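Two proteins follow. First one:
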Amino acid sequence: MTIEELIVEGNKLVHKDTSKLILSTVLNMNYLELMLHLNDKVSADVVSKYQKILKNIKNGQPIQYALNNVNFYGRDFYVDDRVLIPRFETEELVYNTNNYINKYFSKKVKILDLGTGSGCIGLTLKSMNDNFDVTLSDLSPYALEVCDINRKNLNLDVTLIESDLFESINSKFDVIISNPPYIGINDKVDKLVIENEPAIALFADNNGLEFYDRILKDCENYLNSRYLIAFEIGALQKDDVLHLIKKYLNDVKVITKSDMSKRDRMIFIFKNIDIIE
C-alpha cells in the first residue's frame, strides 16, 4: 500500500488530521515529508502497526497511549497506561519554575520531583539545565519503569527513587515540584480519562487535597532553609491549598498563577527569598 492509500483508509476511522499524525509518527516523518511522498509504498510491518493504532484509537484508547508518545515542552516522552498523560498546563508549571530557579538560585540547585509519573517535569528541568541535581520519585514502580525509559531516551543523569512521598527520601532540596493527584473521589471526570489513565495518578482523598496536605505537613524536613515549592493544582483548589500552606508553613511568601485559560492552576511558595515580580 502507498502512503496515500493508508491515509484514505485511516480517514474512514478517525479524523483526517489524526490519521496523518499517526502515519507521520509511525514513519518518523514530519507532515511536509508525508505529503511529498504520498505515492511511496510502505512495508507490511508499517501497514500492520498503523492499522493496529487506528483500531486502538477507534476503540477509545487515547492517541498518546496508542502512539506511546507525547510531546512535552518540545521533547518526546514515551507514555502508556502506567502513567498519566502529560498536559499543557504542566508545561506552564515547568516554565514558571525554571524561571524562578534561574532568578533566585545558583545553577547547582537540588530539585525533587514528587510523584513524577512519566518524568516529564523533572526530566524537562534537567534537560533545560544539566547543572540541576534532579531526583524523581514515585510510589508506583510501574510509573518509574516508564520514567526510566524516558531518562534513557533523553540521556539524562538523574536519580529515581520509589517512595510514598517522603518515605524513602533521605536528602534535602532547594526545590520541591509536584503535580500530585488532585481529583476528588466523587468529582466528575471525562470518560476517556477515567477509563484509560491510572486512578493512582488521578484521585486523592479529602476532596482532592490529600497529597498537598501530606507534602506541606512534612516538606520542611526535606528542604534547605532557603527554598521553593511549586505545585500544580486543580482549578478550584487555590483557596484550600492556601489554607493548608498557612496551617503548616511560617514566614513564607506565596505566588499564585493562572494558566493560559485564566484558571488558577499553579502555586509557588518561597522561603528566605526576596521576591521581585
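Second one, unrelated to the first:
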Amino acid sequence: MASKSLNGSLADAKKAKEDEFYTQLEDIERELKHYRKHFKNKVVYCNCDDPRVSNFFYFFSYNFEKLGLKKLIATCYKNQESAAFSDNSSQSGIVLEYTGDKDGNLVPDLNEIGINPLKGDGDFRSEEAIELLKQADIVVTNPPFSLFREYVAQLMEYDKKFLILGNQNHVATNEIAHLITEGKMWQGNYSGDMAFRVPPYYEPRDTRFWIDREGQKWRSLGTGCWYTNLDYAKRHEELILYKTYDPKTYPTYVNYDAIEVGRYTDIPADYGGSMGLPVTALSKLSPDQFEIIGFSASLARPMSEVVPGAKGSGRFYLDVGNGKYKRMYDRVVIRNKGL
C-alpha cells in the first residue's frame, strides 16, 4: 500500500494534469480590451501556466508598451521544457520577468526577458510565488479549476486586483457565492462556451472533447467565464426591461420567497420583489440596476421544512402539480433597485 504522502503526491499530480487547460489568444484579447485603463504603470503577474508558451505572457509582453505596463512576471509549475505541454517531470518551476522593449523593435526578444529557475516547484501557494504575488498589482491567468476556491482566497488575502478564468458553476460554492454577493468580485464581460488546448495525454470524458486535423486535442467549457474585481464600462450598462409581471408566468418557488425568471431577457419591469435567475445571467446584471441577494445553494430551505415528507435541499423547487416538484438548476437571486 502506498504511503499517505505518496498518495497525496499522486493525487496532486493527477489534478495538475486534469487542470492543464491552455487558453486561446483570441479569448484573452476579447476580454482584456475592456480593462485597458487599469494596466497603466502596473505590475502584472501570470502565475499558473508556462510563460514561454502561455498566451497570457504573449499578450502582455507584445502589448507591454501599448498598455503602459511597469513590469510583467510569469511563473509556471514544475516545467523547464520548451514543449507546449509539460508532464511535470521537472521538480523546479521557472520565473520570467519582462520590463519592456530595450532595442527599439517593440518585440519582446529572449535577451530582454529574464528567465530564472525557482528553488521550488512554482506552485502558486509556494513561498517564492507568494513573494512575487506581493509585488504584483494585477493577477491575470487561468488558475487550476480544481483549486479555484483556494486560489481566489489567496488573492483576497493579499488584496490583489485580478482577472481570472473559471467555471460558472463555481458560484454554487459558498466561498465564491459570498464574495459575489458582497461585491468583492463579479463576472467579467464574456461568459459561455470556451475552447482550450489540452495535453496529448488528456483522456476524453464527454462530448466536449475533440481532436483537430493537426492532431491537437481540445476541450471546451460550455460554462466558462471570467471573474474579476476590476470595473469595466459594460458592467454598468442597464437592461431594458419590457415584460410585465404575471404570477402565472412567473411562479414562486416552493422553498424560497422569490419568483422564477427563466432568462435575463424575461425580467419583469414592474416587479420589486426577489427573483431567481440562471447563474448564466450574472454577466448581464448591472450593479446599478440590480442587487444580488444571494444564491440558491445557501438560500433554499430544505423541502422537508416546507412540504412534509418531501425530499431535496440546496436548490429551489417549483410546484408542477399532482404532488410533484421540479428541482431547478443553480439560481442567483436578485432585486430591482429601482422598485
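SUMMARY FIELD: The chain is about 20% helix and 25% strand. Residues 1-16, 80-89 have pLDDT under 50 and may be disordered.
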